[in-house]
Design a protein that fits this description.
The complex is a heterodimer of chains A (211) and B (251). Chain A is mostly helical. In chain A, α1 packs across α3, α2 packs across α3 and α7 runs parallel beside α9. Chain B is α/β, with parallel strands linked by helices and 251 residues long. Bound molecules: adenosine-5'-triphosphate (ATP) and magnesium ion. Adenosine-5'-triphosphate (ATP) sits at the interface of chains B and A.
Chain lengths: 211, 251
Protein backbone atom coordinates (compact mmCIF):
# COMPACT_ATOMS: atom_id res chain seq x y z
CA UNK A 1 0.00 0.00 0.00
CA UNK A 2 1.31 3.42 -0.92
CA UNK A 3 1.38 5.97 1.86
CA UNK A 4 0.78 8.80 -0.61
CA UNK A 5 -2.51 7.24 -1.74
CA UNK A 6 -3.65 6.80 1.85
CA UNK A 7 -2.70 10.40 2.71
CA UNK A 8 -4.66 11.58 -0.32
CA UNK A 9 -7.61 9.51 0.81
CA UNK A 10 -7.41 11.05 4.28
CA UNK A 11 -7.12 14.56 2.80
CA UNK A 12 -10.20 13.96 0.65
CA UNK A 13 -12.25 14.11 3.87
CA UNK A 14 -11.33 17.79 4.29
CA UNK A 15 -8.31 20.04 4.94
CA UNK A 16 -5.94 18.68 7.57
CA UNK A 17 -2.50 19.21 8.99
CA UNK A 18 0.22 16.61 9.39
CA UNK A 19 -0.78 15.46 12.83
CA UNK A 20 -4.42 14.95 11.80
CA UNK A 21 -3.27 12.83 8.90
CA UNK A 22 -0.99 10.70 11.04
CA UNK A 23 -3.80 10.13 13.52
CA UNK A 24 -6.23 9.33 10.72
CA UNK A 25 -3.81 6.82 9.22
CA UNK A 26 -3.13 5.13 12.54
CA UNK A 27 -6.88 4.80 13.19
CA UNK A 28 -7.55 3.22 9.82
CA UNK A 29 -4.68 0.76 10.13
CA UNK A 30 -4.58 0.23 13.86
CA UNK A 31 -3.08 -3.26 13.55
CA UNK A 32 -0.22 -1.98 11.40
CA UNK A 33 2.85 0.11 11.95
CA UNK A 34 2.09 3.74 12.94
CA UNK A 35 2.92 6.35 10.31
CA UNK A 36 6.05 8.30 11.25
CA UNK A 37 5.77 12.09 11.32
CA UNK A 38 8.76 12.46 9.03
CA UNK A 39 7.00 10.29 6.47
CA UNK A 40 3.82 12.37 6.67
CA UNK A 41 5.68 15.59 5.92
CA UNK A 42 7.81 14.05 3.18
CA UNK A 43 4.65 12.64 1.59
CA UNK A 44 2.83 15.98 1.82
CA UNK A 45 5.78 17.72 0.19
CA UNK A 46 5.72 15.22 -2.67
CA UNK A 47 1.95 15.53 -3.11
CA UNK A 48 2.30 19.33 -3.19
CA UNK A 49 5.12 19.15 -5.72
CA UNK A 50 2.99 16.89 -7.96
CA UNK A 51 -0.02 19.20 -7.68
CA UNK A 52 -2.14 16.59 -5.90
CA UNK A 53 -2.35 18.59 -2.66
CA UNK A 54 -1.91 22.27 -1.83
CA UNK A 55 -1.43 24.43 1.25
CA UNK A 56 -4.85 25.70 2.37
CA UNK A 57 -3.63 28.03 5.09
CA UNK A 58 -1.35 28.24 8.09
CA UNK A 59 -2.64 28.00 11.65
CA UNK A 60 -0.77 30.20 14.10
CA UNK A 61 -2.89 30.46 17.29
CA UNK A 62 -1.05 29.49 20.53
CA UNK A 63 1.48 26.73 19.77
CA UNK A 64 3.82 26.24 16.85
CA UNK A 65 2.77 27.18 13.34
CA UNK A 66 0.89 24.42 11.52
CA UNK A 67 0.38 24.07 7.79
CA UNK A 68 -3.07 22.87 6.77
CA UNK A 69 -3.25 21.00 3.43
CA UNK A 70 -6.15 20.30 1.10
CA UNK A 71 -6.62 17.95 -1.82
CA UNK A 72 -6.59 19.43 -5.36
CA UNK A 73 -8.87 18.41 -8.27
CA UNK A 74 -6.08 16.36 -9.80
CA UNK A 75 -5.53 14.85 -6.35
CA UNK A 76 -9.16 13.73 -6.37
CA UNK A 77 -8.75 12.27 -9.85
CA UNK A 78 -5.68 10.37 -8.75
CA UNK A 79 -7.50 9.05 -5.67
CA UNK A 80 -10.44 7.87 -7.78
CA UNK A 81 -8.08 6.11 -10.19
CA UNK A 82 -6.30 4.40 -7.30
CA UNK A 83 -9.57 3.15 -5.83
CA UNK A 84 -10.74 1.97 -9.25
CA UNK A 85 -7.68 -0.20 -9.89
CA UNK A 86 -7.76 -3.58 -8.05
CA UNK A 87 -4.74 -4.24 -5.86
CA UNK A 88 -2.03 -6.49 -7.25
CA UNK A 89 -2.40 -9.93 -5.65
CA UNK A 90 0.69 -10.75 -3.61
CA UNK A 91 3.37 -12.02 -5.95
CA UNK A 92 4.19 -15.69 -5.39
CA UNK A 93 7.76 -16.63 -4.72
CA UNK A 94 8.69 -13.38 -3.02
CA UNK A 95 7.29 -14.20 0.36
CA UNK A 96 9.50 -15.04 3.33
CA UNK A 97 7.20 -17.95 4.18
CA UNK A 98 7.64 -19.50 0.76
CA UNK A 99 11.40 -18.89 0.82
CA UNK A 100 11.75 -20.61 4.19
CA UNK A 101 9.41 -23.50 3.47
CA UNK A 102 11.04 -24.26 0.16
CA UNK A 103 14.49 -24.06 1.75
CA UNK A 104 13.47 -26.25 4.71
CA UNK A 105 11.92 -28.88 2.45
CA UNK A 106 14.61 -28.86 -0.20
CA UNK A 107 17.35 -29.08 2.40
CA UNK A 108 15.42 -31.69 4.39
CA UNK A 109 16.06 -29.73 7.60
CA UNK A 110 13.47 -31.37 9.86
CA UNK A 111 10.68 -30.42 7.45
CA UNK A 112 7.91 -31.83 9.65
CA UNK A 113 9.22 -29.84 12.60
CA UNK A 114 9.49 -26.75 10.45
CA UNK A 115 5.91 -27.07 9.29
CA UNK A 116 4.70 -27.66 12.86
CA UNK A 117 6.56 -24.60 14.18
CA UNK A 118 5.38 -22.42 11.33
CA UNK A 119 1.83 -23.63 11.84
CA UNK A 120 1.98 -22.80 15.56
CA UNK A 121 3.36 -19.33 14.79
CA UNK A 122 0.58 -18.68 12.29
CA UNK A 123 -2.12 -19.93 14.66
CA UNK A 124 -0.78 -17.77 17.47
CA UNK A 125 -0.79 -14.74 15.24
CA UNK A 126 -4.31 -15.55 14.11
CA UNK A 127 -5.46 -15.93 17.67
CA UNK A 128 -3.94 -12.59 18.66
CA UNK A 129 -5.65 -10.90 15.71
CA UNK A 130 -9.01 -12.45 16.58
CA UNK A 131 -8.69 -11.28 20.14
CA UNK A 132 -7.62 -7.71 19.40
CA UNK A 133 -10.57 -5.45 20.07
CA UNK A 134 -11.84 -3.97 16.81
CA UNK A 135 -12.13 -0.23 17.29
CA UNK A 136 -14.50 0.26 14.36
CA UNK A 137 -16.00 -1.78 11.51
CA UNK A 138 -13.24 -1.05 8.99
CA UNK A 139 -10.47 -2.01 11.39
CA UNK A 140 -12.34 -5.33 11.74
CA UNK A 141 -12.12 -5.66 7.95
CA UNK A 142 -8.38 -5.18 8.04
CA UNK A 143 -8.16 -7.93 10.68
CA UNK A 144 -10.31 -10.24 8.54
CA UNK A 145 -7.94 -9.71 5.63
CA UNK A 146 -4.92 -10.64 7.72
CA UNK A 147 -6.71 -13.71 9.10
CA UNK A 148 -7.74 -14.86 5.63
CA UNK A 149 -4.13 -14.61 4.46
CA UNK A 150 -2.84 -16.55 7.44
CA UNK A 151 -5.49 -19.18 6.75
CA UNK A 152 -4.37 -19.42 3.13
CA UNK A 153 -0.75 -19.83 4.26
CA UNK A 154 -1.81 -22.59 6.66
CA UNK A 155 -3.67 -24.50 3.95
CA UNK A 156 -0.64 -24.25 1.75
CA UNK A 157 1.59 -25.47 4.59
CA UNK A 158 -0.76 -28.42 5.02
CA UNK A 159 -0.21 -29.35 1.40
CA UNK A 160 3.53 -29.04 2.00
CA UNK A 161 3.27 -31.24 5.12
CA UNK A 162 1.31 -33.80 3.10
CA UNK A 163 4.12 -34.07 0.59
CA UNK A 164 6.67 -34.44 3.36
CA UNK A 165 4.60 -37.19 5.01
CA UNK A 166 3.99 -38.97 1.72
CA UNK A 167 7.46 -38.96 0.27
CA UNK A 168 10.34 -37.05 1.77
CA UNK A 169 12.43 -37.32 -1.38
CA UNK A 170 9.96 -36.50 -4.11
CA UNK A 171 8.21 -33.86 -2.05
CA UNK A 172 10.60 -30.92 -2.44
CA UNK A 173 10.56 -31.18 -6.20
CA UNK A 174 6.78 -31.31 -6.41
CA UNK A 175 6.04 -28.60 -3.89
CA UNK A 176 6.22 -25.51 -6.04
CA UNK A 177 4.16 -27.05 -8.83
CA UNK A 178 1.30 -27.47 -6.40
CA UNK A 179 1.43 -24.23 -4.49
CA UNK A 180 -2.03 -23.13 -5.50
CA UNK A 181 -3.72 -26.50 -5.20
CA UNK A 182 -5.63 -27.07 -1.98
CA UNK A 183 -5.42 -30.71 -2.79
CA UNK A 184 -6.92 -32.52 0.18
CA UNK A 185 -7.80 -35.61 -1.80
CA UNK A 186 -4.16 -36.05 -2.66
CA UNK A 187 -3.05 -35.65 0.93
CA UNK A 188 -5.68 -38.09 2.17
CA UNK A 189 -4.85 -40.73 -0.38
CA UNK A 190 -1.17 -40.50 0.52
CA UNK A 191 -2.04 -40.68 4.16
CA UNK A 192 -3.64 -44.08 3.82
CA UNK A 193 -1.36 -45.50 1.22
CA UNK A 194 -0.20 -48.19 3.63
CA UNK A 195 -3.66 -49.39 4.61
CA UNK A 196 -5.36 -52.34 3.04
CA UNK A 197 -7.79 -51.43 0.32
CA UNK A 198 -10.36 -53.91 1.60
CA UNK A 199 -10.62 -52.17 4.94
CA UNK A 200 -10.36 -48.65 3.81
CA UNK A 201 -13.09 -47.38 1.62
CA UNK A 202 -12.78 -43.78 0.47
CA UNK A 203 -16.19 -43.10 1.84
CA UNK A 204 -16.15 -43.06 5.62
CA UNK A 205 -19.92 -43.00 5.95
CA UNK A 206 -19.87 -46.30 4.09
CA UNK A 207 -17.50 -47.72 6.67
CA UNK A 208 -19.75 -46.59 9.45
CA UNK A 209 -22.92 -48.00 7.98
CA UNK A 210 -21.27 -51.40 7.70
CA UNK A 211 -20.22 -51.33 11.34
CA UNK B 1 -26.98 -15.00 34.36
CA UNK B 2 -25.86 -18.36 33.08
CA UNK B 3 -28.61 -20.92 33.24
CA UNK B 4 -27.26 -23.93 34.97
CA UNK B 5 -28.66 -27.09 36.37
CA UNK B 6 -27.51 -28.47 39.65
CA UNK B 7 -26.69 -32.11 39.04
CA UNK B 8 -26.16 -32.72 42.74
CA UNK B 9 -29.88 -32.19 43.42
CA UNK B 10 -30.97 -34.77 40.91
CA UNK B 11 -32.05 -38.30 41.73
CA UNK B 12 -29.74 -41.06 40.63
CA UNK B 13 -26.48 -39.12 40.74
CA UNK B 14 -23.67 -41.65 40.69
CA UNK B 15 -22.65 -42.35 44.28
CA UNK B 16 -19.32 -41.12 45.56
CA UNK B 17 -17.76 -44.59 45.61
CA UNK B 18 -17.43 -44.35 41.84
CA UNK B 19 -14.69 -41.85 42.55
CA UNK B 20 -12.17 -44.35 43.86
CA UNK B 21 -8.91 -42.59 44.69
CA UNK B 22 -7.06 -44.22 41.79
CA UNK B 23 -9.60 -42.83 39.35
CA UNK B 24 -9.20 -39.22 40.27
CA UNK B 25 -7.70 -36.93 37.67
CA UNK B 26 -4.75 -34.82 38.76
CA UNK B 27 -5.90 -31.46 40.07
CA UNK B 28 -7.14 -29.27 37.25
CA UNK B 29 -7.54 -31.94 34.57
CA UNK B 30 -11.05 -32.75 33.40
CA UNK B 31 -9.83 -35.34 30.92
CA UNK B 32 -6.82 -37.59 31.05
CA UNK B 33 -6.43 -40.14 28.29
CA UNK B 34 -3.43 -42.46 28.23
CA UNK B 35 -2.16 -44.78 25.54
CA UNK B 36 -5.51 -44.92 23.79
CA UNK B 37 -5.58 -47.49 20.99
CA UNK B 38 -8.49 -48.47 18.81
CA UNK B 39 -9.01 -50.38 15.59
CA UNK B 40 -12.06 -51.06 13.44
CA UNK B 41 -11.58 -54.56 12.15
CA UNK B 42 -8.17 -54.19 10.47
CA UNK B 43 -8.13 -50.41 10.23
CA UNK B 44 -6.05 -49.03 13.09
CA UNK B 45 -7.59 -45.65 14.02
CA UNK B 46 -5.57 -44.77 17.15
CA UNK B 47 -2.08 -46.03 17.94
CA UNK B 48 -1.56 -44.97 21.54
CA UNK B 49 -2.74 -41.41 22.06
CA UNK B 50 -2.33 -39.32 25.22
CA UNK B 51 -4.61 -36.35 25.73
CA UNK B 52 -4.94 -34.22 28.82
CA UNK B 53 -7.38 -31.34 29.09
CA UNK B 54 -7.27 -28.87 31.95
CA UNK B 55 -10.32 -27.31 33.54
CA UNK B 56 -11.32 -24.28 31.49
CA UNK B 57 -9.11 -25.22 28.57
CA UNK B 58 -10.21 -25.13 24.93
CA UNK B 59 -8.37 -27.78 22.90
CA UNK B 60 -8.61 -28.13 19.13
CA UNK B 61 -7.98 -31.55 17.59
CA UNK B 62 -6.92 -31.26 13.96
CA UNK B 63 -5.34 -33.42 11.31
CA UNK B 64 -5.97 -34.93 7.89
CA UNK B 65 -9.15 -36.83 7.12
CA UNK B 66 -9.09 -40.33 8.58
CA UNK B 67 -6.32 -39.61 11.09
CA UNK B 68 -8.51 -40.69 14.02
CA UNK B 69 -9.95 -37.42 15.35
CA UNK B 70 -13.52 -38.65 15.65
CA UNK B 71 -12.43 -41.93 17.18
CA UNK B 72 -10.41 -40.04 19.80
CA UNK B 73 -13.29 -37.68 20.54
CA UNK B 74 -15.75 -40.57 20.87
CA UNK B 75 -13.37 -42.38 23.22
CA UNK B 76 -12.84 -39.23 25.31
CA UNK B 77 -16.58 -38.58 25.58
CA UNK B 78 -17.37 -42.18 26.52
CA UNK B 79 -19.26 -42.86 23.28
CA UNK B 80 -16.92 -45.78 22.62
CA UNK B 81 -14.61 -47.75 24.88
CA UNK B 82 -11.17 -48.03 23.25
CA UNK B 83 -9.50 -51.44 22.97
CA UNK B 84 -6.49 -50.29 24.98
CA UNK B 85 -5.53 -47.38 27.19
CA UNK B 86 -7.42 -45.50 29.87
CA UNK B 87 -9.75 -42.53 29.72
CA UNK B 88 -10.46 -40.65 32.92
CA UNK B 89 -13.24 -38.13 32.43
CA UNK B 90 -14.25 -35.87 35.32
CA UNK B 91 -12.64 -38.24 37.76
CA UNK B 92 -14.23 -41.42 36.40
CA UNK B 93 -12.34 -44.23 34.70
CA UNK B 94 -14.76 -44.72 31.81
CA UNK B 95 -13.89 -48.37 31.24
CA UNK B 96 -15.00 -49.15 34.79
CA UNK B 97 -18.45 -47.65 34.37
CA UNK B 98 -21.40 -49.57 32.95
CA UNK B 99 -22.95 -48.40 29.68
CA UNK B 100 -25.82 -46.83 31.65
CA UNK B 101 -23.44 -45.02 33.98
CA UNK B 102 -21.54 -43.62 31.02
CA UNK B 103 -24.82 -42.48 29.45
CA UNK B 104 -25.79 -40.75 32.69
CA UNK B 105 -22.40 -39.06 32.96
CA UNK B 106 -22.68 -37.82 29.37
CA UNK B 107 -26.19 -36.51 29.88
CA UNK B 108 -25.51 -34.66 33.11
CA UNK B 109 -21.96 -33.42 33.00
CA UNK B 110 -20.91 -33.52 29.37
CA UNK B 111 -22.14 -31.64 26.31
CA UNK B 112 -21.77 -33.32 22.92
CA UNK B 113 -22.20 -31.78 19.48
CA UNK B 114 -21.81 -34.05 16.48
CA UNK B 115 -21.91 -33.32 12.79
CA UNK B 116 -25.17 -34.80 11.51
CA UNK B 117 -28.53 -36.10 12.52
CA UNK B 118 -28.24 -35.55 16.20
CA UNK B 119 -31.58 -33.90 16.82
CA UNK B 120 -34.53 -36.15 17.59
CA UNK B 121 -36.60 -35.85 14.39
CA UNK B 122 -39.96 -36.18 16.16
CA UNK B 123 -39.37 -33.25 18.54
CA UNK B 124 -39.46 -29.48 18.06
CA UNK B 125 -36.31 -27.47 18.70
CA UNK B 126 -37.36 -26.48 22.19
CA UNK B 127 -38.22 -30.09 23.12
CA UNK B 128 -34.93 -31.30 21.67
CA UNK B 129 -33.06 -28.83 23.86
CA UNK B 130 -35.18 -29.61 26.93
CA UNK B 131 -34.79 -33.37 26.43
CA UNK B 132 -31.70 -33.96 28.61
CA UNK B 133 -33.39 -32.08 31.45
CA UNK B 134 -36.71 -33.92 31.00
CA UNK B 135 -34.92 -37.27 31.00
CA UNK B 136 -33.47 -36.30 34.34
CA UNK B 137 -36.90 -35.64 35.80
CA UNK B 138 -36.86 -31.84 35.75
CA UNK B 139 -40.34 -30.30 35.73
CA UNK B 140 -41.38 -29.69 32.13
CA UNK B 141 -42.11 -25.99 32.65
CA UNK B 142 -38.68 -25.13 33.97
CA UNK B 143 -36.94 -27.35 31.43
CA UNK B 144 -38.73 -25.62 28.53
CA UNK B 145 -37.98 -22.18 29.94
CA UNK B 146 -34.29 -23.02 30.24
CA UNK B 147 -34.33 -24.54 26.74
CA UNK B 148 -35.89 -21.38 25.30
CA UNK B 149 -33.32 -19.30 27.12
CA UNK B 150 -30.50 -21.29 25.50
CA UNK B 151 -32.13 -21.21 22.07
CA UNK B 152 -32.20 -17.45 22.42
CA UNK B 153 -28.54 -17.26 23.43
CA UNK B 154 -27.69 -19.40 20.43
CA UNK B 155 -29.70 -17.21 18.07
CA UNK B 156 -32.23 -19.96 17.33
CA UNK B 157 -35.33 -18.66 19.11
CA UNK B 158 -37.09 -18.25 15.75
CA UNK B 159 -37.13 -22.00 15.21
CA UNK B 160 -38.14 -22.92 18.77
CA UNK B 161 -41.38 -24.53 17.57
CA UNK B 162 -39.89 -25.95 14.35
CA UNK B 163 -39.24 -29.63 13.64
CA UNK B 164 -35.66 -30.58 12.64
CA UNK B 165 -36.76 -31.53 9.10
CA UNK B 166 -37.89 -27.94 8.56
CA UNK B 167 -34.67 -26.29 9.78
CA UNK B 168 -31.68 -25.17 7.75
CA UNK B 169 -28.33 -26.79 8.53
CA UNK B 170 -27.22 -23.69 10.44
CA UNK B 171 -30.41 -23.59 12.50
CA UNK B 172 -30.11 -27.28 13.37
CA UNK B 173 -26.51 -26.70 14.50
CA UNK B 174 -27.53 -23.80 16.71
CA UNK B 175 -30.19 -25.98 18.28
CA UNK B 176 -27.64 -28.77 18.79
CA UNK B 177 -25.26 -26.32 20.48
CA UNK B 178 -28.08 -25.12 22.75
CA UNK B 179 -28.86 -28.73 23.67
CA UNK B 180 -25.21 -29.43 24.46
CA UNK B 181 -25.05 -26.44 26.80
CA UNK B 182 -28.46 -26.56 28.50
CA UNK B 183 -27.40 -28.86 31.34
CA UNK B 184 -24.45 -26.65 32.25
CA UNK B 185 -21.80 -29.26 31.38
CA UNK B 186 -18.29 -28.85 32.72
CA UNK B 187 -16.84 -30.30 29.53
CA UNK B 188 -18.09 -30.11 25.95
CA UNK B 189 -17.01 -32.36 23.06
CA UNK B 190 -17.68 -31.11 19.56
CA UNK B 191 -16.91 -33.10 16.40
CA UNK B 192 -16.85 -31.02 13.22
CA UNK B 193 -19.87 -29.15 14.48
CA UNK B 194 -19.85 -26.89 11.45
CA UNK B 195 -18.87 -29.43 8.83
CA UNK B 196 -22.21 -29.10 7.07
CA UNK B 197 -22.28 -25.30 7.06
CA UNK B 198 -20.72 -22.67 4.86
CA UNK B 199 -17.76 -20.85 6.32
CA UNK B 200 -19.46 -17.79 7.76
CA UNK B 201 -22.43 -19.63 9.27
CA UNK B 202 -20.10 -22.27 10.65
CA UNK B 203 -17.83 -19.74 12.27
CA UNK B 204 -20.77 -17.96 13.86
CA UNK B 205 -21.99 -21.17 15.49
CA UNK B 206 -18.45 -22.00 16.56
CA UNK B 207 -17.87 -18.52 17.95
CA UNK B 208 -20.98 -18.95 19.99
CA UNK B 209 -19.96 -22.33 21.33
CA UNK B 210 -16.47 -21.19 22.28
CA UNK B 211 -17.78 -18.01 23.90
CA UNK B 212 -20.42 -19.89 25.91
CA UNK B 213 -17.87 -22.44 27.10
CA UNK B 214 -15.35 -19.76 28.05
CA UNK B 215 -17.98 -17.72 29.85
CA UNK B 216 -18.81 -20.69 32.07
CA UNK B 217 -15.19 -21.66 32.59
CA UNK B 218 -16.03 -25.07 31.11
CA UNK B 219 -13.63 -27.10 28.95
CA UNK B 220 -14.02 -27.77 25.25
CA UNK B 221 -12.49 -30.37 22.98
CA UNK B 222 -13.28 -29.48 19.41
CA UNK B 223 -12.44 -31.43 16.26
CA UNK B 224 -12.11 -29.10 13.32
CA UNK B 225 -10.65 -28.63 9.85
CA UNK B 226 -11.07 -24.84 10.07
CA UNK B 227 -7.84 -23.03 10.99
CA UNK B 228 -9.71 -20.01 12.29
CA UNK B 229 -11.55 -22.29 14.70
CA UNK B 230 -8.29 -23.94 15.79
CA UNK B 231 -6.91 -20.43 16.32
CA UNK B 232 -9.58 -19.77 18.95
CA UNK B 233 -8.34 -22.65 21.08
CA UNK B 234 -5.74 -22.56 23.82
CA UNK B 235 -3.92 -25.58 22.43
CA UNK B 236 -3.89 -27.47 19.18
CA UNK B 237 -3.35 -31.21 19.18
CA UNK B 238 -2.54 -32.44 15.70
CA UNK B 239 -3.12 -36.08 14.85
CA UNK B 240 -1.51 -37.82 11.93
CA UNK B 241 -2.20 -41.47 11.20
CA UNK B 242 -3.62 -42.27 14.63
CA UNK B 243 -0.88 -40.61 16.69
CA UNK B 244 -0.21 -37.13 18.06
CA UNK B 245 2.15 -35.51 15.55
CA UNK B 246 2.42 -32.06 17.13
CA UNK B 247 1.04 -29.95 19.93
CA UNK B 248 1.04 -26.17 19.96
CA UNK B 249 0.19 -23.98 22.93
CA UNK B 250 -1.49 -20.88 21.51
CA UNK B 251 -2.35 -19.05 24.68
N1 LIG C 1 -17.18 -47.44 12.17
C1 LIG C 1 -16.06 -47.62 11.48
N2 LIG C 1 -15.82 -48.80 10.86
C2 LIG C 1 -14.68 -49.02 10.18
N3 LIG C 1 -13.70 -48.11 10.06
C3 LIG C 1 -13.87 -46.93 10.65
C4 LIG C 1 -15.05 -46.61 11.38
N4 LIG C 1 -14.94 -45.36 11.85
C5 LIG C 1 -13.74 -44.91 11.44
N5 LIG C 1 -13.10 -45.84 10.71
C6 LIG C 1 -11.75 -45.72 10.13
O1 LIG C 1 -10.84 -45.37 11.16
C7 LIG C 1 -9.94 -44.35 10.75
C8 LIG C 1 -10.10 -43.12 11.63
O2 LIG C 1 -11.42 -42.62 11.46
P1 LIG C 1 -11.94 -41.31 12.15
O3 LIG C 1 -13.38 -41.20 11.83
O4 LIG C 1 -11.58 -41.33 13.61
O5 LIG C 1 -11.07 -40.20 11.40
P2 LIG C 1 -11.25 -38.60 11.39
O6 LIG C 1 -9.91 -38.04 11.70
O7 LIG C 1 -12.38 -38.20 12.26
O8 LIG C 1 -11.59 -38.32 9.86
P3 LIG C 1 -12.47 -37.10 9.24
O9 LIG C 1 -11.62 -35.87 9.31
O10 LIG C 1 -12.65 -37.55 7.80
O11 LIG C 1 -13.74 -37.00 9.99
C9 LIG C 1 -10.26 -44.11 9.29
O12 LIG C 1 -9.38 -44.86 8.52
C10 LIG C 1 -11.68 -44.59 9.13
O13 LIG C 1 -11.92 -45.04 7.82
MG1 LIG D 1 -14.25 -37.29 11.87
Amino acid sequence: MSTADVVLALLSRGPAHGYDLKRGHDTWFDQGRPLAFGQVYATLARLERDGLAAVAHTETGGGPERTVYEITPSGRARLAAWIDEPAEPAAPGADELIRKTVAALRLGLDPAGFVARQRAAHLRRMRALEQAPATDPTSRLVVEHAVAHLDADLRWLEVAAGYVAADGVAAPVRLLDHVAADDHADVDADDHADESAADHSDDHSDDRSRA
Amino acid sequence: MTPQSTPGDLPGTPPADHLAAADRVPAGAVLEAHGVQHAYRRTVALRGVDLRVEAGEVVAVTGPSGCGKSTLLHAAAGLLVPQAGTVTLLGRDLARLTEDERALLRRREVGIVLQFGQLVPELTAVDNVALPLLLDGHPADGARRLALDWLQRCGAEDVAATMPSDMSGGEAQRVAVARALVTGPSVVFADEPTGSLDTLAGRQVLGLLVAAVRERGASLVIVTHDNTVAARSDREVRLVDGAVAAEAVLR
